[in-house]
């Protein structure tokens, strides 16, 4: 690592800023399109609620399944940098294709394919920015997660407003421009990124000894199962919660009707506001020797999300009238706090436990959990029109609570394979 690379912006390597900004614009494109997707299907393409929820779940699932194949291709053939560039280009093309109704399904498939190369290859470069033992690495994924959410905050405000007020296709076009911006930033910042590890031909590599990593893979598989359950509830924010914001919320505020897509900006806004305080809190606990183990922290996050959904159930059951928009705002505050405990922690855990030469592939396994979770979310979403909404939100609270219980049961096993905790377990 060069001295220039080691000198930090905001206390972190410059390369993290490049990865941060690249991901920020990619997430702008993803969340910009996602903010419009359910509304576009139900209002423009005139799909039924059940069918649109299934398509939404299937799309988000495919977007997180393709990284499994993409991670292997990046590790074995293309390298991480080339995979990011090719993936970003394909995704930009898919976003622009969304402007044409006849290409709707083709566009969704194109975005999912590009995402397969892009998604595992970008965050798997973070570890290579740091020397072994660098304490900054422990917080890098929370910093990176803020970048995700800046893009997610801006996307509904820009893409959503353009789509609602001027036409859906303007919103989709803005998402495509965001993806191009991320690609330009990544290309311009190449000199700050970690060097590519030379990829030897497969026959020249020592054989992979699965026995050496079997325990780690089993633990990561169990974590992935828990995240699958959790995301069945978590992913409803872009699906059934978005439908509730449209039909079940009084959005009037001082003579102004708040656009329904704006509420989806509350989640990333809360991430940006809460992350610095949470990082300071966790750092103080770590300095005092009271750091929370990762599985226990994730379980706490799932319980907080359950509480957020239980609050919505109470709001629905307490009145026959439309709920005030302030309840949805409070929901996103509680929901986001739980998210910050579970999702960045899980991503960092998968990256930290990745075996040598399998960085992108192991990170892709984290996205496989998002794939299976998105499928379950799509299926859970079909119950929205079959049961009362208070009961549906209570069901989501139960699902998140089950995930919390499973994560808590894995605490000792996770600490036993995590190098940060092995000494404490032994």
UniProtKB/TrEMBL annotation:
Keywords: Cell membrane, Membrane, Peptide transport, Protein transport, Transmembrane, Transmembrane helix, Transport. The chain crosses the membrane at residues 54-74, 104-122, 143-163, 169-189, 217-234, 262-282, 294-313, 325-351, 363-384, 390-410. This is Peptide MFS transporter. InterPro entries: Dipep/tripep_permease (IPR005279), MFS_dom (IPR020846), MFS_trans_sf (IPR036259), MFS_Transporters (IPR050171), POT_fam (IPR000109), PTR2_symporter_CS (IPR018456). It is a multi-pass membrane protein. PROSITE patterns: MFS, PTR2_1, PTR2_2. It comes from the Bacteria. CDD domains: MFS_DtpA_like. NCBIfam families: yjdL_sub1_fam (TIGR00924). It is found in: Cell membrane; Membrane.
């Amino acid at each position: 690592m060069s001295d220039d690379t080691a000198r930090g912006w905001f206390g972190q390597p410059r390369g993290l800023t490049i990865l941060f900004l690249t991901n920020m614009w990619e997430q702008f494109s993803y969340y910009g399109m996602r903010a419009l997707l359910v509304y576009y299907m139900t209002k423009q393409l005139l799909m039924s609620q059940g069918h649109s929820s299934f398509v939404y779940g299937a799309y988000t699932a495919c977007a997180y399944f393709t990284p499994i194949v993409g991670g292997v291709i990046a590790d074995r053939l293309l390298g991480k940098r080339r995979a990011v560039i090719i993936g970003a280009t394909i995704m930009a093309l898919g976003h622009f294709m969304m402007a044409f109704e006849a290409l709707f399904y083709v566009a969704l498939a194109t975005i999912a394919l590009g995402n397969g190369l892009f998604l595992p290859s970008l965050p798997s470069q973070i570890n290579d920015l740091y020397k072994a033992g660098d304490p900054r690495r422990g917080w890098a994924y929370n910093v990176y997660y803020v970048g995700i959410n800046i893009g997610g905050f801006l996307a509904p405000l820009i893409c959503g407003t353009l789509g609602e007020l001027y036409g859906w296709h303007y919103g989709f076009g803005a998402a495509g421009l965001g993806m191009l911006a991320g690609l330009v930033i990544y290309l311009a910042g190449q000199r700050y990124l970690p060097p590519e590890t030379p990829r030897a031909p497969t026959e020249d590599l020592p054989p992979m000894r699965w026995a050496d990593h079997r325990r780690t893979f089993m633990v990561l598989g169990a974590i992935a199962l828990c995240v699958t359950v959790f995301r069945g509830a978590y992913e409803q924010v872009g699906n059934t919660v978005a439908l509730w914001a449209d039909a079940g919320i009084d959005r009037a505020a001082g003579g102004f009707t708040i656009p329904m897509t704006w509420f989806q900006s509350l989640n990333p806004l809360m991430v940006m506001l809460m992350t610095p305080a949470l990082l300071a809190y966790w750092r103080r606990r770590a300095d005092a020797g009271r750091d929370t183990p990762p599985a226990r922290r994730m379980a706490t996050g799932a319980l907080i999300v359950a509480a957020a959904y239980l609050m919505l159930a109470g709001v629905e059951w307490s009145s026959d009238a439309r709920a005030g928009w302030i309840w949805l705002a409070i929901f996103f505050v509680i929901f986001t706090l739980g998210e910050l405990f579970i999702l960045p922690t899980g991503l960092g855990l998968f990256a930290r436990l990745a075996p040598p030469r399998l960085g992108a592939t192991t990170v892709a396994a984290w996205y496989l959990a998002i794939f299976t979770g998105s499928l379950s979310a799509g299926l859970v979403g079909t119950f929205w029109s079959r049961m009362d909404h208070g009961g549906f939100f209570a069901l989501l609270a139960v699902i998140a609570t089950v995930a919390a219980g499973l994560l808590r049961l894995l605490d000792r096993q996770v600490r036993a394979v995590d190098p940060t905790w092995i000494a404490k377990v032994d």
